[in-house]
Amino acid sequence: MSINMPLLQVENLHLSLTTDAGSFPAVEGVSFEIARGETVGLVGESGCGKSITALSIMGLLRHPLGLSGGTIKLTGQEIQALPASELRALRGKRIAMIFQEPMTALNPLKPVGRQIAEMFVLHQGASWNEAEKKAVDALTQVKVPAPARRAKDYPHQLSGGMRQRVMIAIALACEPDLLIADEPTTALDVTVQAEIVDLMKELCAARGTAILMISHDLGLVTDICKRVCVMYAGRIVEQQDSEQIFNNPQHPYTQGLVASLPRLGMRALHGRRKLTEIAGVVPGITAYPGGCRFNPRCNRATEICKQVVPELEPLGDGSLVRCHHHG
Ligand SMILES: Nc1ncnc2c1ncn2[C@@H]1O[C@H](COP(=O)(O)OP(=O)(O)OP(=O)(O)O)[C@@H](O)[C@H]1O
Ligand SMILES: [Mg+2]
User: Which residues line ligand 1 at a C-beta cut-off of 6 Å?
Assistant: First the structure.
């Protein structure tokens, strides 16, 4: 295996939604790569297809959603068509995921320590005794105070932030190569959000774990990730380094996202400054417009934007943009 081989390669991914009225493209031609230890963000408004992209990587898509094209490779091996048993073995061990609401992912009837221990038993063949000890270590690493005592708690006995720490402990238990974090802090208080983000960053950096960070919050994603993919209505419309995206957003949608971010300083000056918002709403999946899907909301749109789907075009500096009138 080549040392330079990307950890994850998503190539021309197509996901469809089947309804009584027919089949609709929920995700169309999404491609991106993640190198070992790299941090990549996926941002975009609600409904643009971020979570289902993540679920497809985990092999967790279920009817009415399905994979209709493309490949997903983990260190070169196609995983999108693996049998369920092999996918289960990958999950947790090589790719792990944390979700917005840990309560839905945790089992309410089992102590959290037990749920972490299960990972060691399942994936590493540890004995229960050994696994319970490792679970307490794992809780220590995610900075849960009094870990030995907390291990015996049930999920409902913990705060939202503590539950998310438990989820991170479960996700990182078997040292996966890739952590997919889908809106991991959206349900938390702002101060707790920052702690969880710092914890994820620190633990993943120390272990060389790659991160795919999913959020509607461009500020959060650029804080964690080296590179950002911006999605709009099922397509990637821009890909850039985080450092660059604020100074040089190319797609009108990204420009709108950047303009709507509260600026440091500005906030202090103006207090609760009204944010610039992008007018209009994301069209529903069954009503995506032809051509560029952003065209009905775009002040730069011309006739070609309604007719022709723009290609995702390389700009030479490693960034990509899908717009007839970018820049
Ligand atoms: N189980 C499902 N049944 C029907 N439609 C679904 C299902 N899951 C997702 N969809 C649709 O697929 C599209 C993409 O959904 P997805 O959950 O990936 O969006 P998202 O970008 O993660 O949004 P959010 O920011 O709200 O989490 C949406 O139009 C959504 O309504
Ligand atoms: Mg989502």
Answer: 17, 26, 44, 46-52, 64-65, 216, 285
Max CA distance (Å), the chain: 67
**CA 175 to each of CA 127, 299, 325: distance values in angstroms, whole numbers, following the listed order:** 18, 46, 44
For residues 241-257, average pLDDT: 93
Backbone angles phi, psi at 26, to 5 degrees: -85, -35
Q: How far is the CA of 41 from the centre of ligand 2 (A)?
A: 13
Which residues touch 308 (CB under 8 Å, ≥6 apart)? 291, 292, 324
The tens digit of pLDDT for each residue in 284-304 reads 888 899 999 999 999 999 999
Percent of the chain with pLDDT over 70: 94
Strands 227-232 and 235-241: antiparallel
Ligand positioned closest to the Cα atom of 232: 1
Q: How many CB atoms lie within 10 A of CB 303?
A: 10
Has residue 1 got a pLDDT over 60? no
CA of 144 to the centre of ligand 2 (A): 27
Judge whether 324 and 310 are in contact, CB under 8 Å. Answer: yes
DSSP for 20-71 reads TTEEEEEEEEEEEEE-TT-EEEEE--TTSSHHHHHHHHHT---TTEEEEEEE
Helical axes 112-124 vs 160-172, angle rounded to 10°: 10
Q: Which residue out of 52, 62, 229 has the highest number of ligand 1 atoms within 8 Å of its CB and is therefore the one to mutate? A: 52
309 contacts 44 by C-beta, under 8 angstroms: no
Query: Which fold is adopted by the domain 8-94+176-249?
Result: Rossmann fold (3.40.50)
As a whole-number percent, the residues of the chain with pLDDT over 90 amount to 83
Nearest protein Cα to ligand 1, atom 3: 64
Q: For residue 276, name the pLDDT band (cuts at 50, 70, 90).
A: low
Query: What's the 52 CA to ligand 1 centre distance in angstroms?
Result: 6
The DSSP code for 309 is P
